[in-house]
Amino acid sequence: MKRVLFCITLLFVSVSLSAQVPLWDLAKDTIPAELNHGATRAVDGSMTVGGDNYFGVPATAFPDQKNLTVQITVSFPELSEDTSLNVLLKQRSDGEDTGLGLTCINSPNWKVYRPIINGMHIGGLRTNFQPNTPYTFTVAVRRGSASYYLNDAPGGQYFTMLLPNDEPMWVGKKLLPKEKPFSSVKISELKVYGPDFSYKSPKEKVTAEPRGAIAGKNWMIDAPTVLDPVRPKLLFYGDSISGGYRQYLLPALEGGVYAYHWTGFVGGIDPKVDALIKQGAASADFKLIFFNNGLHSLSWTPEKATDEQIIDTTRAIVRGFKAGAPQARLFWIATTPHTARRSEPGKPVDALGEKNPVVLRINRLAEKVMKEEGVEIIDMYTPLAAKLELAAGDEYHWSGPAYKMISDAIVAKTNEVLKLNSASK
After folding, report:
1. What is the pTM of this model?
2. Same domain, 236 and 308
3. Which of 11, 14, 176, 267 is most buried, judging by how many CB atoms fall within 10 Å of its CB?
4. What is the spatial distance between Cα 37 and Cα 61, in angstroms, rounded to a whole number?
5. Residue 11 forms part of a structural domain
6. pLDDT < 70 stretches in the chain
7. Which domain holds residue 389?
8. CATH number for the domain including 58?
9. Cα–Cα nearest to 291, from 270, 265, 256, 309
10. What confidence tens digit (pLDDT) does each residue in 335-368 have?
11. Buried b (16+ CB within 10 A) or exposed e, 377-387
């Protein structure tokens, strides 16, 4: 009997240990020649990237892209202003719509690391980078949604269905030609784990009302745990701008409204998108829905999209929400401005971007649809266009005070509606 118990214990320990073995390890695995673009390996096994030098982890290291963990430790021998580093980049070769990434940005007013999900550059988590200091990033993908950590500290959980691809995971590769990468970055550790590995941060807080996810085909909604069935439910839908104001909106609504967050966008002309929108909108008995299709539609130029195509796609989005949640009151948030890049370090943005006419066109056509469909409008374009100094300087995103403005507008409308509804009962 003792021998049987010993064998069972040994088997359990063996399985537990095997589950911790990475699928790919920089310390042990060889980087294929075709994936090494000038990166160099030191005697201690670390790799140096920077400038035009980068390397890749083979796509075979990611057999299950809905369940994986990547841990990477980087340090910067020197820090120069207005530089960036794509620490991780596993996206389609055109850099859009699929997979994940993580970018470090070091500018005078914006020192952050930024998650990338399905081509969406989501906000920025502030980090005061120091030279020759190791930073360990962990990206844990669980059931298709990604969570980001820095030195075990949670940096954000993003509930959008990660779309897989067959690309390698690049380290240090430029995503856009205009990027100015760090001159030298040391990668001292890089491990990729599969679905048998479950990352748990010792710094993760356990909340009284933990959040989870509701998912369908190509969509995922960040959902609260419902403890009070009477409390009204609210859904907000949008791209990385919604990720920016989420940090203000969730605390402001806590205890009064259950807030669900759908990180999504329709980037192409698709008049049949109503079916997908309907699925997500029907996932809970929402009382309020706030939505915006955002800046991922900047490709809708007159040469690529007619007014009729934009109207049809926008109407499909609206009717998808209506069909999935006929009981909900809908609000459309006007798309925020496209801004110019920061002209020089420390100087605030003071001009609109060259693509802003596309934003104006989309807003004009969307407003027409909203009026015809009886959807209320929250204009966040006008107040932010008057406060360009709050722009992040990357053409698309904003600083905290701007995101709080959007959050405050949603909270004000929520309080107004719920007060009217309670008075009418």
Report:
1. 0.71
2. yes
3. 267
4. 19
5. no
6. 1-19, 94-96, 206-209, 345, 420-425
7. 211-424
8. 2.60.120.200
9. 265
10. 999 999 887 767 899 999 999 999 999 999 999 9
11. ebebbeebbeb
